[in-house]
Amino acid sequence: MSLYDIPLTTLSGDPVSLADFRDKAVLVVNVASKCGLTPQYEGLERLQKAYGERGFTVLGVPCNQFAGQEPGSAEEIETFCSTTYGVSFPLLAKAEVNGAGRHPLYAELTKVADAGGEAGDVQWNFEKFLIGRDGAVTRFRPRTEPEAAEIVDAIEAHLA
């Protein structure tokens, strides 16, 4: 199964898939509202604003698997993201990124190794996977800031 064939659900409950973003570079990020890394929403939103018109989008995936740091309902998550960080990028329904209940999207994404050659489980909230327009995936670990040179360079390499 291709990444583009995996069924997804938006935070509001509507069906979607990565095929809807096939012409874009997509930065998939497992997000949480009560994490020490939560301020990364600011950088993610700045990336969205800087590159959105050039064929890029952030795609947030709320996840409560790491110390229960995303306990809210869909409505609470939406309100938090919009009022606290002005998030304009799409958010998916809450999903598991590791373990037996791992979402199929993450079953595929976690096969990709990071810059150090390590694949496997997501380490924490705000792990990032850049899916290029060509379908190639680049992985960035949670502590890599959204606007770090390696992420910005990778995004720009996939834009027209």
UniProtKB/TrEMBL annotation:
- Entry annotated with the keyword Oxidoreductase: yes
Q: Could you say which protein family the record assigns here?
A: Belongs to the glutathione peroxidase family.
Read off the SUPFAM superfamilies from this record. Thioredoxin-like
Q: Which Gene3D superfamilies match?
A: Glutaredoxin
Query: Can the keyword Transit peptide be found in this entry's annotation?
Result: no
Protein name according to UniProt = Glutathione peroxidase
Provide the Thioredoxin domain boundaries. 1-160
Give the GO molecular function terms.
Answer: peroxidase activity
Q: What Pfam families does this protein's entry cite?
A: GSHPx (PF00255)
Q: Which UniProt keywords apply?
A: Oxidoreductase, Peroxidase
| Superkingdom classification of source | Bacteria
- Naturally occurring in which organism (per UniProt): Streptomyces roseicoloratus
Read off the InterPro entries from this record: Glutathione_peroxidase, GPX_AS, Thioredoxin-like_sf, Thioredoxin_domain
